[in-house]
Specification:
homodimer; 251 residues; alpha/beta; 7 strands; 42% helix; 14% strand; globular; binds adenosine-5'-triphosphate; binds magnesium ion
């Protein structure tokens, strides 16, 4: 069975997509078979890897309109595939509200895909609504990207409350894979304070790897490439490679 | 009547809250009476100004549970007041879905407040859901904070489509106040490319003022102060003061 990992944080712009895309690529370059499901209607993961959900994607996956095989697209990295998303997915959050088992649509849809991959990744939108709840219900681990900024601290307790609620009712198997510091700027006191405070409080749930701010990570998506193809020697690529080793070891 | 300005962009972490909070403070320091309505359940605008919505805020405002006077809190800047938010507001997005006039709850609630202020600001969450639609329906102008990053470009066309839809059906008086470049880093090619591309395409809808990346803007919220109180001489404060002059002139 695939290890299912969801990337969640309702705070916007903290590095969910950048982490899902580049950690996935690092694992694929290391020989793992990885499927990334873009579950954000913004479709930033999709465009980061040159994929387009207009002809079918994660909305069609959960509504069963098309079989999964027709929705999976290749990336430039062998062994790394994507179920893209599109704006259609925004409609699902409203359409599913009154359905029974509305939190299990994604989990059920992924059941057929488990044997074909080593890792199933899920990228979520910046909210704690039904799409993110589907992601938390479908996954066995949640990775929490945390920008080294003050507002990031504010939202963490609400996110952990939501995770505990999902663990209690919808998905008891869900564990916290770890908190990942992103966009760390060694020159600022703010970055260091956030890392110190969160590490003190959540000592065993923090990844050793810290992702520094690196403009190459922001440039890569405009070339539809993960960082390992765009600039494999830069600090952004090396950091996500180190994270991939840490994630693979956690087992 | 107050000038009602909404800060909207479904892309996360682009500077909606930072712009609403500090532009509001700059106008108040210049003698204007400003009310900031925090319409994001994350309540980042509220905490930035030392306010707390637990005893009542924007959820109670739109549901009519408490009169507006009991919901308005003062800030450290004279003439600058806030209707805070809390996690209760996240419930409204689901509760209102089946109500008639569900897009007008905020607009109707603000009608009593128009005469007491020069500016009514509305901070929105990172989504195009019902809370943001309420914000767009209640406002006469929308300011679009745009981070100088690639993903920011991706989302702009979807945001403008939503604004046009709101103008066509819910709020014909809504105009685009302007696109504001935020977190501009003069050292990176990426920042310059984004500014060039957007300015070429939207020439007359782009503010002359560009907000640079400035760590002081990220530090100020942890002291519950707008930048004009935390560090009035820094480039972040001076940029938002320049933006305030530009907004006041657009009239
Ligand atoms: N370590 C980094 N260094 C520099 N830029 C980064 C880094 N990580 C992410 N970025 C950039 O910061 C912006 C926000 O990151 P990203 O879009 O991955 O966050 P997100 O949490 O997925 O956002 P959303 O909440 O909108 O889904 C993007 O433009 C991205 O390219
Ligand atoms: N010009 C700037 N320079 C440096 N940091 C900034 C700047 N503007 C905003 N920030 C910081 O970047 C982060 C994102 O900004 P902010 O929270 O205002 O964006 P937002 O669009 O309101 O996010 P969300 O989508 O989650 O509501 C915050 O931690 C903020 O302090
Ligand atoms: Mg994202
Ligand atoms: Mg905000």
């Amino acid at each position: 069975r695939a290890r299912r990992i969801v990337f969640a944080n309702q705070k916007g712009g903290v590095g969910k997509t950048t982490t899902a895309v580049n950690l996935g690529a690092a694992l694929a370059v290391a020989g793992k078979r990885v499927l990334l499901v873009d579950f954000d209607p913004q479709a930033n993961s999709s465009t980061s890897l040159g994929c387009d959900g207009e002809q079918g994607g994660s909305y069609e996956l959960i509504t069963g309109v098309l079989p999964p095989e027709e929705l999976i697209q290749h990336t430039a990295v062998p062994g790394y595939e994507v179920v893209p998303s599109s704006i259609n997915l925004a409609g699902a959050a409203v359409e599913l509200v009154n359905q029974s088992r509305r939190e299990f649509y994604l989990s059920d849809a992924l059941n057929d895909l488990d044997t074909a991959y080593d890792y199933l990744f899920i990228d979520c939108p910046p909210s704690l609504g039904l799409l993110t709840i589907n992601g938390l219900t479908a996954a066995s681990q949640v990775i929490i990207p945390l920008q080294c900024e003050y507002f990031a601290l504010e939202g963490l307790s609400e996110l952990l409350k939501t995770i505990r609620r999902v663990q209690g009712t919808l998905n008891p198997a869900l564990t916290v894979g770890g908190i990942l510091f992103t966009m760390f700027d060694v020159r600022t006191r703010l970055s260091q304070e956030v890392v110190r405070e969160v590490t003190e409080f959540f000592r065993h749930q923090v990844f050793r790897t810290i992702i520094p701010r690196n403009v190459r990570l922001g440039e890569a998506p405009s070339y539809s490439q993960p960082i390992q193809l765009y600039d494999p020697k830069c600090i952004g690529a090396r950091s996500y490679n180190a994270l991939a080793r840490e994630v693979a070891q956690h087992g």
